[in-house]
Amino acid sequence: MIQFILNNTTVSTPENSGMTLLDFIRENKQLKGTKIGCREGDCGACTVLVGTLENNQVTYKSITSCIYPLGNANGKHIVTIEGINLTEQLTTVQHSFLENYATQCGFCTPGFIVSLTGYALQQNEQSTHNCNDAVSGNICRCTGYKSIEKAAKNIEHILANKDANNQISWLIKEGFIPDYFSEIPKKLLKIKNPISSEEGTVVANGTDLYVRFADKLTDEKVHLIADKYKGIEITKNQCTIGASTTVTELLQHKYLQKLFPNLKSFLKLVSSEQIRNMGTLGGNFVNASPIGDMSIFFLALDSTLTIVHRDGSLRKIPFKSFHKDYKQYDLKEGELLKSISFNIFEDNTRFNFEKVSKRTHLDIASVNAACQITISNNKVTAIHLAMGGVAAIPKYLSKTAAFLNGKTISEEIIFEAQKILQEEISPISDVRGTSAYKRLLARQLFYAHFLKLFPENIELKKLITL
Amino acid sequence: MKNIDSYSHVRGESLFVDDLITRQDTLYGLVFDAPVAHGIIKQIDYSEAESIEGVIKIFTYKDILGENQIGGIIPDELLWTKNEIHFWGQPIAFIVATSEAIAKKARKLIRIEIEKLPAITTAKEAKAKNSFINAPRSFHLGDTDNAFAHCDFIIEGETFSNGQEHLYLETQGCYAVPMENGNIKITSSTQGPTSVQKITARVLGVPMHKIEVDVIRLGGGFGGKEDQATPWAVMAAVAVQHLKKPVKFVLNRHDDLRMTGKRHPYESTFKIGLTKDLKITAFEAEFLQNSGAAADLSPAIAERTLFHATNSYYIPNVKTTVLSCKTNLPPNTAFRGFGGPQGMFVIESAIAKAAHIIGVEKERIQEANLLDENDTFSYGQIATQVEAKNTWRTAALNFKLEKIEHEVRDFNAQNTQFKKGVSIMPITFGISFTNTPMNNARALVHIYQDGSVGVSTGAVEMGQSVNTKMLQVAYKTLGIHPSKVKLETTNTTRVANTSPTAASSTADLNGKAVLKACETLISRLSEVAANMLNTKAGEVNFKNDAVFVNNKKSPITWEDVIAQAMLDRVALTENAHYTTPVIHFDKTKEKGHPFAYHVYGTAITTTTVNCLTGTYEIDSVKIIHDFGKSMNLGIDIGQVEGALIQGIGWMTMEEISYNKEGKLLSNALSTYKVPDIFSVPKTVEIAPLETKGNDMAILKSKAVGEPPLMYGIGAYFAIQNAVKAFNPNYEPKFHAPFTPEKVLMGLYE
Known about the structure:
The structure holds two protein chains of two kinds.
Chain A: E1 2-6, E2 9-13, H1 21-28, E3 47-54, E4 57-64, E5 77-79, H2 81-84, H3 92-99, H4 109-120, H5 131-134, H6 146-159, H7 167-173, H8 184-190, E6 202-203, H9 209-217, E7 223-224, E8 232-234, E9 238-242, H10 247-251, H11 254-259, H12 263-267, H13 273-276, H14 281-287, H15 293-299, E10 304-309, E11 314-318, E12 323-325, E13 328-329, E14 335-343, E15 349-356, E16 367-376, E17 379-388, E18 395-396, H16 398-404, H17 411-424, H18 435-453, H19 460-465
Parallel strand pairs in A: 1-5, 6-7
Antiparallel strand pairs in A: 1-2, 3-4, 3-5, 8-9, 9-14, 10-11, 10-14, 12-13, 15-16, 16-17, 17-18
Helix pairs in contact in A: 3-6, 16-17, 17-18
Chain B: H1 6-10, E1 27-33, E2 39-45, H2 47-50, E3 55-59, E4 84-85, E5 91-97, H3 100-108, E6 111-116, H4 123-128, E7 137-141, H5 144-149, E8 153-161, E9 173-178, E10 184-188, H6 193-204, E11 211-215, H7 230-243, E12 247-250, H8 253-259, E13 266-274, E14 280-292, H9 298-307, E15 317-326, H10 340-358, H11 362-368, H12 388-398, H13 401-414, E16 418-431, E17 440-447, E18 453-457, H14 466-478, E19 485-487, E20 490-491, H15 506-533, E21 540-543, E22 546-549, E23 552-557, H16 558-567, E24 573-579, E25 584-586, E26 591-593, E27 597-610, E28 616-625, H17 633-652, E29 683-688, H18 713-726, E30 735-736, H19 740-747
Parallel strand pairs in B: 1-12, 8-30, 10-11, 14-15, 18-19, 28-29
Antiparallel strand pairs in B: 1-5, 2-4, 2-6, 3-5, 7-15, 8-13, 9-10, 9-12, 11-20, 13-14, 16-27, 17-18, 17-24, 21-22, 22-23, 25-26, 27-28
Helix pairs in contact in B: 6-7, 9-10, 10-11, 14-15, 15-16, 17-18
């Protein structure tokens, strides 16, 4: 049995753990406020909140229920639009939408309301974003978003007065959520979290598998691993990240924010709020897309993968040897990704991530690129470069890096290096762009690293005239 | 007044087709569609699919008792194809099962053998192969040959504008339920309930009165549900006719994207002639419309391209021709603007190219040729109450155009990696169905005996707030509180023979009918009230839920009058019929007065291009828009904002892609991108132009649905100007959308 709290009611269900949460909500529970827009996590019409009990507090995150396995709701508080509605009046978020003409046809609206209510429920110290980021995964085809921005700004303004110590009671008092929310931590404690199946298709949070195989997975009891292999561990010179860590968890990690001062702007280019709340590192690696953002990021960190076998044995491999060919990787029957680790770098090492896609946010890259460069005495002493969308696998650019090693960064050297880069890559024409475009873009993003990391040495004007 | 649906929208309580309570014995439909773009079906084997438990029946053309024909303008489209396949995604069969999941499983088991034929995917190929939907259409004004002979500059060129997916958030869908005596009630997500009713009756071989179509609301339409909501409803109805069980059919997103048509891609050529003082004296254009595999609404859309081919400019000598090219794509269809945007993109491109070659700013040519009072359009209508120059000048003045341009020049002089571009986009858009007979509407107004009111019209609510506007007309005319008025669903048994909700004219047509019905009711009720107060009907009026005599409040309330009217056996129901006066158009001469009025406006767009990566942002769009006298400015501004961003999407990131075999590659939301909250302009400023308004518009409040979409064209030229600022060698191309890919290639060509 799967047991969780749906809005204000504890529910138990014998349904397959592989069923989508969306279908359970709409069909089994006949809650029709959660809409079906695309069934691939790309529109946000089916957004719900998932509340997880941690230290007697419930942490809420927005997710797209269309690609979320029902089994992952186990022991959680699931909030749909119906669970946000007050009996006789509108919530503050709803009222703000009404006042600002932020709803037209109304089909996407519940998703926006849920996302923004999730934003209101964020703990202040976790907040790495604003209202617009909170709806980065919600598509509206009617309003053109300007009225939604206004509504969101108004909400942000009200939330500025939030009482961080008594958040839930403040939100109830200010009409953001119904008062049953205050009883949820107690109720969640009572729910037994049964051990899930170790059989069936391995699923973390489903952001990839449910886009491709939802019909098949619905009929299965799946092997859920989202709560295994979690956590970010920092030792003196190593950072180890569990394979089930989500992108949001990376983004919210205080130490990583310090290590990568631009972490937020990098990761904001990765999908949307809802998908970042679900998508795991391990999932991105085994999806094995040649343009996987996280693959590119961790390739440039020269990371090491730890793989665990069903029998408990571990093996470690360099991440750059993990991807073998298009969608093929080094994982044997009975094995799972456990964690990925990289060496913590010093001040003389700089890191950058670049991504260009047709739409800047919530889109798959045409080309993405990352680099890590260590400089001593004006010379490159270590360098790792990775690029996506330019080969059959996420590409570790060993030849270009080898060329740059030991050199002093200058426009001429960068220009020479990009010639090697062009020999090292072999992009194909597809829906993300022609090969000629990807080659040009590869050069530009390669330049972008150096323009950003070495503004004192590199000038665009000079580079483009070479 | 806010959209009257806002309260239930924000609570997720508004009902869409997929949310309806279904009968327990409801069955679910799914289409089996063609897996090639062109071919002959050699053999189909349904046996394995049929053997799955839960599959009730697989319907094909053989099960049609009436006519297998769903074409609207031209009867050239089958509901389910027989032997020949004309586009990838063409419906072949309809699987009905006890659940959608079972139907999906069955679909995978259908075996089909097809002899493939070569597919035509572009309009140019179709033209070369003489493959057309109908005869070409041409508009003529003056004498272009003679005019070109006297031009100082003649510039020729070609353009391409891609299609556009509607991406209504609610996919196509319907729920068909058997009633008694073979009657069927269909709840459909359609902009055209009458079209659903008519075609269903035709295919089922029953009279129209056997089919009732009800529309609650649409989760977005944008033209995509004008004609193309019909086939799905008809399929469900055929199944109901045979099985006598309710059938629900809501398309999943991938099926919807694959099987439905989109905005038409256009390949066009132009020739523009100017004198030294930058007057455009001649303009010729040939528009190749990629119509897809059947007519659908293509001929009407082609016509509107011609109507708007000169946008906001007066050109004395014009020759424009449009060819509806038959290809092996899904039949393309209506999309906000209805061919107008495609036409306007060509004239704006022609002016941009002329400006580039002559070496002047584009806006100097634009401004020198703006339409004036009493100018003649190429279709013979004389322009009156023209606001083209007024909106242009007001925009330039209020938004300080010179300052904007100065700042852009300074910025570009100081920056290498980032360049800004600015452009001005005027619009002139004609309001009315260009097919004159369609300009009619009806309203049925009931006053119930407790004084509450129910209003039915032919208008379909799809987010544009037409119901709110109808309610405004009703409560204001009846002089009662808005809460007393309810807007009913759009239903063919209450309001029959309706035109689709389209052409931006729905509020005008239906609003005028509501106005007429309410005025008639008031005149009857005035008699009743006058008798009660021993005065004359002419001295009575209704406001604030009370009766006023010579503008003084009487003790008699609205409810008192209604109660008395019941006792006096006075009719409290009125049905009114409205037709737009004045308009006419003669297709044999291609001349007439097709539009009730025009909507005008001017937008100033500023963009910033990142010349390292080819990505860009729209900094601002500032618009002076001619709303007439807006009856609801909050709602109308929402329409302008929504249309603008849809237009910008069409011009920038929305890229439909078919491969050479005619397979849709942009077949999911992961490969077809519409604007998200981060890709819209940082600033959108919309100011209404102060005008008297137009009497042909409802309460002088002009139509607003489509015209502002074309402001989005400004984004293309603003980006182009930024690219030019970076790369002096850039040769302007007119190939929309201007994706980051095209920008980067242009920056470094």
